[in-house]
UniProtKB/TrEMBL annotation:
The keyword tRNA processing belongs to this UniProt entry's keyword annotation: no
Membrane disposition: Multi-pass membrane protein
GO MF annotations in UniProt: ceramide glucosyltransferase activity
SUPFAM superfamilies on file: Nucleotide-diphospho-sugar transferases
GO cellular component: membrane
Metabolic or biological pathway, per its Swiss-Prot or TrEMBL entry: Lipid metabolism; sphingolipid metabolism; Sphingolipid metabolism
Name of the protein: Ceramide glucosyltransferase
BP GO terms, sorted: glucosylceramide biosynthetic process
Domain of life: Bacteria
Transmembrane stretches, start-end: 6-28, 276-303, 309-331
Tagged with keyword Transmembrane: yes
Keywords from the UniProt entry: Glycosyltransferase, Membrane, Transferase, Transmembrane, Transmembrane helix
Amino acid sequence: MNILAWAGIAFCAATAFIQFVTIAIVILRGRIAVGKLYAKPAVTPAISILRPVCGLENSIERTLRSGFELDYPEYELVFCVANGDDPIVPVVEKLMAEYPQVPARLLVGDDRVSINPKLNNLVKGWKTARHDWIVMADSNVLMPHDYLIRMLSRWSPTTGLVCSPPLGSEPDGIASEVECAFLNTFQARWQLAADAIGNGFAQGKSMLWRREYLDDNGGIEALGAEAAEDAAATKVIRGAGRHVRLVELPFPQPLGRRTFRAVWSRQLRWARLRRVTFPVFFSFELIVGGFFPLLVALALGLFDVIPLWSAALLAVAWYGSEVALAISLGWTSTPKQVLAWILRDVALPFLWVAAVSGSGFEWRGNLMNVKEDSLVEAD
């Protein structure tokens, strides 16, 4: 065999090893977590939960309602909306009336401290939060009853921030299944594996802070140093000599119906943000999916470098490991997910090329540009 053939074999072996090891790490981590009982800690500090809201999303009343039904002794809910005419306002007001026993407020206003509309929406909540422990949680996160307990259980003396990546649930249609394929056995898996080896990255879906760790390092405005507040949070916490930790098992986000255009737009936005915030890690995203390893294995089989059946065996093992991960942790694992995983991996190289070929994206009606670091009004 020539050097090119050996290089192809080495590439397939290395990428398969990484695939199987990261999945094994997350399965082991998850199974240990499933076996744990999230008992209330000896100290349960009062917590302020900030929820930025904007528009009517899938299952929005259910996800917001879940915040009123937490099993925790003392917490407040602070809803933040940029525009008082937003259609989400009546939904929030209805829920606050239904749960008068839960301290809750709705704050209206838009503080332009950054190019990030979500961060601008959160500023007023941060500044008026009554407690020193603060959770920032997206409106589409479905909070289980032990949500706060599970966040607190990951805190240690060296922790500066606890987060949860989104976990896609309840997909409706193949586009939504593809969204799950991106979120769960790909993105969440990589983030959980990184956290397991002590290299956790912040994720903006759910973030548990101690107020002083942010206020002593520039305040909430410091999260505007990057286009994405979670990337800025990672750098702020690491710069302060502390660690970002992830929850043992992510919290679900009901997806409902999605269009391919919406899925592509969201993934492109995140990819372009990763490109400018963590360029070294982003550079490897081109080859971490199954597209190139399986394509190279097929080519090696067709040129009789390896038996053709071994290429097929690699494909079965590759996606079989994702099946094992999804089933083991109770994530979406329908037969459509296998097709969605294949479509995701085919899309990944095109997504990577699109991410490096431009800098603009739309977010909540705002046209943004990660290169120019500017915010312009959408048409």
